[in-house]
């Protein structure tokens, strides 16, 4: 294919992404954090209990902590009212874990990860993981992070030429800006990062198969207390869709 034809193809793909409802995505995970974790009472803080997965009935995201970590109740403005949300701890560790399942592995398909977060400057850390399946060292991973308050998206897997990975990061921190929508999406060979309503970073090279046996960890790498990349802000609506 000529460079010109390649350019036209890329342009056509870009237009398709922006304008056409061409992607019939299936929501595989939606934690809205509205209900009280199983076996717990409001308003917490909680060190155990599970949030129902609204998208896949029967699945759930369960709290796991390292003392003195806990998940606390907070709220987020929503329409004229408020939606229940969760806050991660100022010290110790806390995550919400969803067991490994085939429908949470995109494989070679398009996929989208998103959540709503609020972080203050005082809560910003150099490593803060929002949602991930797999860790950096694993052969396959998807991850939405907030290192230094800057949204970022990393994928790793098996590409056309073997092991492949891609990291895209926003230039600006979202600290002290209230609730922000952050989204990572793969459409064909393009990985994009959306903050609010704007695409703040994108890259080609996203063609790879992403499949692993890890749990989905929300809010940190896991419940461990060291090198945990603990997010210390507030969160609502953790979503994964595929297709
Ligand atoms: Ca909610």
Describe what this molecule looks like in 3D.
The protein has about 240 residues and is mostly beta strands. The protein has one domain: Sandwich (Jelly Rolls), CATH 2.60.120. The strands form 2 sheets. Strands 1, 4, 5, 7, 12, 13, 14 and 16 form an 8-stranded antiparallel sheet that branches. It is globular, with a radius of gyration of 18 Å. The two termini are about 25 Å apart. The N terminus is likely disordered. It binds calcium ion (CA). The site of calcium ion (CA) has 7 residues, from strand 5. Keywords: Signal. This is LamG-like jellyroll fold domain-containing protein. InterPro entries: ConA-like_dom_sf.
Walk me through the topology.
Layout: H1 3-19, E1 26-31, E2 50-52, E3 60-66, E4 72-78, E5 81-87, E6 93-98, E7 111-118, E8 129-133, E9 141-145, E10 152-159, E11 162-169, E12 180-187, E13 190-195, E14 198-204, E15 216-218, E16 234-242
Antiparallel strand pairs: 1-16, 2-3, 3-6, 4-5, 5-16, 6-15, 7-12, 7-16, 8-9, 8-15, 9-10, 10-11, 12-13, 13-14
Bound molecules: calcium ion.
Calcium ion binds next to β5.
Summary keywords:
243 residues, mainly beta, Jelly Rolls, eight-stranded antiparallel beta sheet, 1 helix, 16 strands, binds calcium ion, ConA-like_dom_sf, LamG-like jellyroll fold domain-containing protein, signal
* Average pLDDT number: 92
Q: Give the low-pLDDT segments.
A: 1-21
Q: What is the quaternary state of this protein? A: single chain
Tell me the name of the CATH class. Answer: Mainly Beta
The main pleated sheet reads as: 8 strands, antiparallel
Q: Give me the strand/helix succession.
A: HEEEEEEEEEEEEEEEE
CATH topology: Jelly Rolls
Label the structural class.
mainly beta
End-to-end separation in angstroms reads: 27 Å
Fraction in helix = under 10%
* Small-molecule components bound: calcium ion
How many independent structural domains?
1
The CATH architecture assignment turns out to be Sandwich
Instruction: Please tell me how large the radius of gyration is.
Output: 18 Å
Portion in beta strands: 35-45%
The total beta strand count reads 16
Alpha plus pi helix count? 1
What is the global morphology?
Answer: globular
């Amino acid at each position: 294919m000529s460079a010109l034809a390649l350019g036209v193809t890329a342009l056509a793909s870009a237009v398709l992404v922006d304008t056409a409802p061409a992607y019939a995505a299936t929501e595989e995970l939606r934690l809205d954090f509205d209900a009280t974790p199983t076996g717990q009472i409001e308003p917490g803080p909680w060190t155990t209990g599970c949030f129902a997965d609204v998208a896949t009935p029967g699945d759930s995201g369960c709290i796991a902590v390292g003392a003195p970590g806990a998940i606390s109740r907070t709220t987020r403005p929503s329409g004229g009212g408020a939606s229940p949300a969760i806050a991660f701890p100022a010290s110790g560790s806390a995550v919400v874990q969803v067991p490994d399942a085939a429908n949470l592995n995109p494989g070679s398909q398009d996929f989208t990860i998103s959540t709503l977060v609020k972080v203050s400057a005082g809560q910003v850390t150099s490593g803060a993981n929002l949602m991930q399946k797999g860790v950096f060292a694993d052969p396959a991973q998807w991850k939405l992070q907030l290192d230094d308050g800057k949204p970022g998206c990393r994928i790793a897997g098996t590409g056309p030429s073997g092991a492949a990975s891609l990291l895209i990061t926003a230039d600006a921190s979202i600290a002290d800006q209230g609730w922000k929508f952050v989204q990572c999406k793969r459409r064909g060979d393009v990985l994009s990062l959306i903050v609010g309503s704007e695409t703040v970073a994108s890259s080609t090279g996203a063609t790879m198969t992403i499949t692993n046996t890890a749990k989905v960890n929300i809010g940190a790498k896991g419940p461990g207390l060291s090198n945990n990349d603990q997010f210390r802000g507030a969160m609502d609506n953790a979503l994964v869709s595929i297709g």
